[in-house]
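This section describes the prediction task in plain terms. A model, or a person checking by hand, is given the sequence of a single protein chain and must write out its three-dimensional structure as a string of tokens. No templates, partner chains or ligands are provided. The sample shown here is typical of the held-out split.
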Amino acid sequence: MKKIFLILSLLLSVTFARGDIAQPDSYYYQFHLYYNNGALMADRDFEYIYDVIPGLYVQPEIQTAYPYIAEVISVKGVKLTEIKFDPGLTLVGKTAGKLVIALPYFANAKDVNIYDNQEKILISIPVGETSFCNDDKICDSDVGENYNNCLNDCTSSSLLAVTPSPSTMAAPETGKTSSLLSAILYILGGLVIAGGYFGWRWYQKRNFNNNIIQ
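The expected answer:
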């Protein structure tokens, strides 16, 4: 539930480059972590281990000869990107400290893996709850996939093969047309009744005036 509104906004605005790696240009992940004696875990000061932040991702500068590595893995197990980053001055000479990591957002991501400078995995973070592209080569409009935000599924060829779901077929439009027609008929019926009533009143008044003159 915590990510529903966010996913809806992503469906409207995230765009990707062509190819297997769908590089976004308007959102990025921000992970809130805590390093403790070689272990990496969620920072308890935050309700969630990560957020998706609107804005352009900027790759950080590396100021160490032994950077850590973070990789984003797709729902099909494909490495979407690998980012080297500096664990930060807060960890230099310390055995514990907070660690904030930013990574580019991918709509077809499943996990984010983070390794230390010895390439030992420290933590694997599921991120599928904020992804909506499943890389099944089917352009599923029901979940918001389209040619702009899910290119792996919505290629030009897949668009030709897409069959509209019942919820998006002509039935709702027929309902709208029927409602509009009913409204027009009600209006016309009301005008006929009103016209008949005022015509009858005019006729009664005319007869009344004729009787007075006679």
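For orientation: Residues 1-5, 11-24, 160-174 have pLDDT under 50 and may be disordered.
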